Queue: 3 jobs
Job 1
Amino acid sequence: SAVAITGCACSRTKTQRRHAAHFTFQPDPVPSQYGPTQKMNLFQSITSALDNTLASDPTAVIFGEDVAFGGVFRCTVGLRDKYGKDRVFNTPLCEQGIVGFGIGVAVAGATAIAEIQFADYIFPAFDQIVNEAAKYRYRSGNMFDCGNLTIRAPWGCVGHGSLYHSQSPEAFFAHCPGLKVVIPRSPIQAKGLLLSCIADKNPCIFFEPKILYRAAVEQVPEDPYTIPLSQAEVLQEGSDVTLVAWGTQIHVLKEVASMAQEKLGVSCEVIDLQTILPWDIETVCKSVVKTGRLLISHEAPVTGGFASEISSTVQEECFLNLEAPISRVCGYDTPFPHIFEPFYIPDKWKCFEAIKKMINY
């Protein structure tokens, strides 16, 4: 009803007034090794990667709900006009069908780039991803595969997304061998990692932090380039505590590291995991051996979240190096709330308190 719609819009405006973003985006240094750069936000860097792919690979196709007119987040804007409606086209509102079609396209030898309009709505396609795409190569003894399939989806909290538009479902897919799961923190990373996913010969899920689509702006190379998958990046070296995250939460932890240095004199090493599956155990464990302390933070609920896997592995590998229990600062075990989002997210204050506990342990 009109009343319901008005009420919804009104509450959203109030929510946006009530609290500012829980982080400040700090751009990475301008990369010089990939040629000329251009100022792009995150969704434009995605468009640039897709444009490069369509230009260089005549078999590449992009499909999903609303992608033909540019998509709800504008990631495919202009591509149908440039490459034609046979290569960039809308699908019915059916996630199972989108991924099932993508598997068929990839098995036939073409490059399939599927968009699921929100990561929250990837679950109808769960069977196709987990039971078909991930297992195709294995079950055929490598006679057939759908490694040319990349599934993109907007992911993570956005400030007013509530229970159906703010979820972070990466841990569901991290339990499934045969997939790669990747989450970038910035426009430069997004383009390089997406091009790596598209080129990779395994089905990849590429989650795009939707709050960063417009908030994150960097100088991004115009030409194609790749960033290796399954390699974490040490963004800041430190000696006292290792901080691990991915996507949006990296920007929270960078602020936490500054606070810890300023208020406590504590030196933090900040690591962006980048690839959730298969993840870079070596980089994380090497850091923990040095610092003796580990904090992992993500927006998804704490129970069964990917922080659990990291914590368990580090405890097995670095037990004698640990100076304090590993800390997980994550979302609560509830559906994602609307007006209570500021209390739900693992903000810098929660992470800062966890560091104080570890240092004083």
Note: The CA atoms of residues 16 and 159 lie 7 Å apart.
Job 2
Amino acid sequence: MAMIEVGFERQNFHPLKRKSALLLKLIAVVFAVLLFCEFLIYYLVIFQCNWPEVKTTAYDGEQASREPVLKAMFLADTHLLGEFLGHWLDKLRREWQMERAFQTALWLLQPEVVFILGDVFDEGKWSTPEAWADDVERFQKMFRHPSHVQLKVVAGNHDIGFHYEMNTYKVERFEKVFSSERLFSWKGINFVMVNSVALNGDGCGICSEAEAELIEVSHRLNCSREHYPLYRRSDANCSGDDAAPPEERDIPFKENYDVLSREASQKLLWWLQPRLVLSGHTHSACEVHHGGRVPELSVPSFSWRNRNNPSFIMGSITPTDYALSKCYLPREDVVLVIYCGAVGFLVVLTLSHLGLLASPFLSGLNLLRKRKTR
């Protein structure tokens, strides 16, 4: 009787062992795919980005001096979803992507300053105080950074509304969190941060308050700046005959809506005399040369919600020169293909263990054995 009981227990043990082995394999595959798609792929892709080389030797008459290089990251249009239009799954997916991309870039590239060029939030223009506080808290978690890294943020139309829906409360609410400074200087380089939403008042070209503030910044630049400032604003101006987008040509940008009016652009160029303009808002890469000499580069969106291939700009900047390069983030379609492939592999593995599908490995092994026995 004892022998019969032992045999029965061994008979039940084999199916249990096979199920445990299958479960362990499934868990291992799921863990490996999640680890790669949600963590490692960001390191793999961003590791390929390098700071562009820039000339660091400046000549003052007959003397040569070595200029310090400032490493700056420029990203735009994060569009953190709000409580009205943001589905929880969309929030989770897109915000995790941006958080992992930003934290990985900070760790690998070690920038000294990061600029976010407008549209930080998607629903800032109409969010309630409670929703605003929640959005700000999520932003601060996602874009946390060491104390030695400067983070500069400029308002976009989704943060405070277009000129016809913007008001003092929305502007002050934004500036309470992100500061209201317009002129930022570091290592002899001047950055002018302009919210161009305020420059598109109905019929006024540039509104009087914004005009007065910009004239004051212009005076400060003329009194204290190094000869070549760097100027930045939040909405791109890729329109007109001189537009030459490097990636997407024939993009319809509506003047005074998607871009500044030509009059406003000319005044800004006259007052600030920049050597480079970096802007956001269009979600796409676009390059235009103002007057044939001042380049303006529109920075693509940082979020999968707006682009399948988000990216940011890396700038090596000195008081007399600069060099830019684009750093791409992981493509969303590549991540989805990996997940779909993993699901297919798990299905095949499960069916194979259940005996409903012959394992390709075992089939090949059996075929090889048959050939050897002949």
Note: Residues 19 and 245 are 57 Å apart (CA to CA).
Job 3
Amino acid sequence: MTNQNVIVSDRNPILGSKTIRVSVSNSPLFSSPSTYFTFPRRKFLELLEAADKNNNNNNKNNLGAGKIASWVDSMRDSSPTRLRSSSRDSDSDNDEKTSWIVRFPSALNMFDKIMNAAKGKQIVMFLDYDGTLSPIVEDPDKAYITHEMREVVKDAALNFPTAIVTGRSIDKVRAFVKLNEIYYAGSHGMDIEGPTNENSYGESNQGVLFQPAREFVPMIEKVVKILEEKTKCIPGAMVENNKFCLSVHFRRVDEKRWAALAEQVKSVLVDYPKLKLTQGRKVLEIRPTIKWDKGQALNFLLRSLGFENSENVVPVYIGDDRTDEDAFKVLREKGQGFGILVSKVPKETNASYSLQDPSQVNEFLKRLVEWKRKTVGEE
């Protein structure tokens, strides 16, 4: 029986419309949609609105001084200088790292075990961008991917369905990656597009399009402008518009000003109860309060590929940040596939394995492609 995949495919804004047009594709991969239907917009949004019903009522309380202090302390503790100064060859730190590696072994060292579990099944690759495919850099606009990494991601995409799932906007991450063969899930999965093929007229054909937070765009744009004005007095502060969410970067801000910057963010968000704050690596992110994250994006892409209830698929998600934990948790709860955390230091995680940095991610993807080619050759 042919898989039927439901995807939102109308690029026109849905704000204000009473119904949403949805396509049903007969192809689990890249074919154009064949059938369309509509259903009530209210019902659609009910499926996506925030899981935490108390968020709107308690937003002000959640943004108290204690919460801000906790965020700032967490960012300080994760800074490279703090990590180096606090872990200089002490026995306790070495024991902690050894214990952590036992719990979350290197995906390179466990490669054969991972591949044995994937034998005869379809691997689907999910990759974070910053800190996973590119190194973490001071200026987020210069988080360039290397030519070697680009080529290995392209090779992976030619052998497995491959998606980049990032907090960045799709436009920005695509400008970095420059590949048409992959799925892009930007804004933490709130903006999903599939592999593209340009026709002879230079027009682009989108394989998949899903934007559950589209009605929040005007609000995000307004908050971006307010934050840019409020934070311009803090040297190094940067507000990044990721279309369906935004990021306030702390990386180039003097550590003594972190609390002040966090307070500025808090002061703006109090007036927008439909938005919420989350924390990343030296970044505070503002997102719509809808029930959507990288884990939901992973599930959506698996459904779109026709693997929703398949036992013959192995999703592999590689990421380095707190936001990737949503995807790791989904895989752990499914009991299917593997999460791989990119980190040089011990962290609590829902992942199963670890890699230290983008260079090891590169090596893992190379070995994965080689394994695939060898497997095909043996058939």
Note: The longest strand covers residues 19-25.
